[in-house]
Design brief:
By secondary structure, this protein is an all-alpha fold. The longest helix has 29 residues. It is globular, with a radius of gyration of 20 Å.
């Protein structure tokens, strides 16, 4: 499958191909939701997504390491080294570091603004020192670099039916929505790293502070004030999804099934958290495999429909007219459909290729 993706993308240099393969492996290993959704993109666009995600994953792993053998000063040194390699790679269009090599190649192919990568690295650096955020505005400033710019990096790869700048605010909002979902799901794990990403004013409004969160994490104890604070964080996150939703119909029709699938699956994480009684300080909530499979099946069906429509437009008009009637945007809280087995998503992967 990897060879077919690279061939379709016109990536022929063996060294560059190997760089993309490493990025794809990072995506498959660490990002189940992203990886599944990426399989619903046109085959020639998938390597670029793997490169963007692979680089982000690498930087994130540096700052999030819980290995006691990796002290903070060493993480700072490694992140600074990566930043230097990134800047040099983007300038030269190449790098001795495979992940940076793939990133530089993707940035060149899709004319991605280099500022998005610099802003991302700035937020990664702040993770080395900043351990909490007083207000949502403070958190949003951090998420510009850690999440919004990921959506902006993706936009040239996905393609749009409107000028890119018109779709950009929605792409940025979706990146923020995904990260807020991760923050809520990972409250306990982030606390282990010494960080609290939920805004302090939101927690304080419900009588919660870091000490109470730490008590719950350490003892397994439950407190209704924590539940109410987490429910408020869920409501805030769903509001950002609503802000981002109109942007789905601004994307290239053949890219919409991919992003719609990610949209629904990440919304499903919020559902899983609520269904689990907001127990995120004690365990990670996950979307059931049956539900993931149902969403994947639906995404594959939409992809087939989009491809058929695109072929018909090319035949009838002699060019690609990218604006079909907009499809309905799914609510974040629900997804309909059933799959017969938990492995149905794997079968869908094959059908979408």
């Amino acid at each position: 499958m990897t060879g077919r993706e690279l061939d379709a993308a016109g990536i022929t240099d063996p060294v560059v191909r190997e760089a993309y393969i490493q990025c794809r492996q990072l995506n498959a290993q660490h990002g189940r939701t992203y990886f599944l959704a990426t399989r619903l993109l046109p085959v020639e666009r998938r390597p670029a997504v793997h490169a963007l995600y692979g680089f982000a994953r690498w930087a994130d792993d540096i700052v999030d390491s819980l290995d006691p053998a990796v002290p903070p000063h060493r993480r700072a040194t490694e992140l600074a080294r990566l930043h230097h390699r990134m800047e040099q790679g983007l300038k030269d269009g190449d790098s001795p570091e495979p992940v940076v090599r793939a990133l530089a190649d993707t940035a060149r192919r899709y004319d991605i603004d280099h500022r998005h990568f610099s802003d991302f690295m700035a937020s990664m650096r702040s993770d080395l020192d900043v351990t909490d955020y007083p207000t949502f505005d403070d958190l949003r400033a951090y998420m510009h670099g850690s999440a919004a710019v990921i959506g902006l990096q993706m936009l040239p790869v996905l393609g749009t039916v409107v000028p890119r700048e018109e779709a950009a605010p929605y792409a940025a909002a979706l990146g923020v929505a995904f990260q807020l979902t991760n923050f809520l799901r990972d409250v306990g794990e982030d606390l282990d790293r010494g960080r609290v990403y939920l805004p302090a004013d939101l927690l304080r409004a419900h009588g919660v502070d870091r000490d109470l969160l730490s008590w719950s994490r350490a003892t397994g104890g439950r407190d209704p004030r924590i539940t109410e604070a987490l429910r408020a964080a869920e409501d805030l996150t769903r509001g950002v999804y609503r802000d981002a939703a109109p942007g789905l119909t601004l994307l290239d029709p053949v890219a919409r099934p991919c992003i719609r699938t990610a949209f629904v699956l990440y919304g499903g994480i919020l559902d899983a958290i609520a269904d689990d009684g907001y127990a995120v300080l004690h365990r990670r909530s996950v979307v059931p495999r049956r539900r993931r499979a149902a969403v994947a099946v639906d995404g594959a069906a939409r992809l087939v429909t989009a491809r058929i429509s695109a072929r018909r437009r090319r035949r009838s008009e002699g060019h690609v007219a990218l604006v079909p009637p907009p499809s309905a945007v799914p609510p974040v809280s629900t997804v309909q459909g059933r799959a017969s087995t938990g492995s149905a998503a794997d079968s869908v992967h094959q059908e979408a290729m």
